[in-house]
# Entry
Amino acid sequence: MVNLLKKKISRKYYNYAFAYTLIFPGLIAVIIFIAKPAYDTFVLSFSKFFFGRNLGFIGFKNFETIFSEQLFITVLKNSIIWLFAGSLLSIFLGLFIALYIAQENKLSLLTRSIILIPWILPDVLTAITWKWMLNSKFGVINDILLRLSIFENPYTFLGDPDTVIYTLVFIVVWRKVPLVALFLCAAIRSVPIEYYEAAKIDGANSFQKFIHITLRHIAFSITAITCIVLIWISSEFGLPWVATKGGPMDSSHIISTYIYQNAFEHLRWGVSSAASVVNIIILCILI
# Structure
């Protein structure tokens, strides 16, 4: 009996040791590529950094600098529009597309096959393509709108300070919706068909089935993909930077482009790190 108990205990610890051995390489990678840079950024946000040299601790002066700049206030406003409008539209549109492609027909199967194309395209290629299509002189979108008499004159979608951020939101939603739709499609198809059959017998219409069956069963999936989309859009850099570089007149700057510009163009590493810390805090609160 005692020997059997020892074998069970040793087997248990062996399983634990084996499991942690498998996790260990990934843990090391996280520490090296995520935890260490994040720690360095946090330290740098409280330091004065000049041409590769840390000149020492300066307290909250970097944070005072960014919050005293009118540009950073504009960046925060744009980031709120970018984050919330992009995330909510991605989820809502993705949900409605998912409801369609979850059906069993030839067109929905074809849609499932090609819908990921916008998501798998590189950021730079996507931004350049949309810049050409939205060009006021020879862009295909302006050409279509003029032919349909929707606009009388060409419109500079990426050149109007009042609307450029909404144009960028449209582009990022176009890019993120396909993966959201496939994710939610999988969740919808996992709902037992018996529930829909029982609801049909009880006289429930399509809307009632959607509210009381579909939404209830995919609520966790919606929550999970919402968190993922929030992280994706908040960290999006390549698309807005290549499309507008924060212009015109800094009207499309979001926090990721602001961080990049301060670090690599203005060489204000402390200010850039402080903005990164603010971004992390905001994202943690939202999540």
The beta strands are 47-50, 53-57. The radius of gyration is 25 Å. The chain has a mean pLDDT of 85.
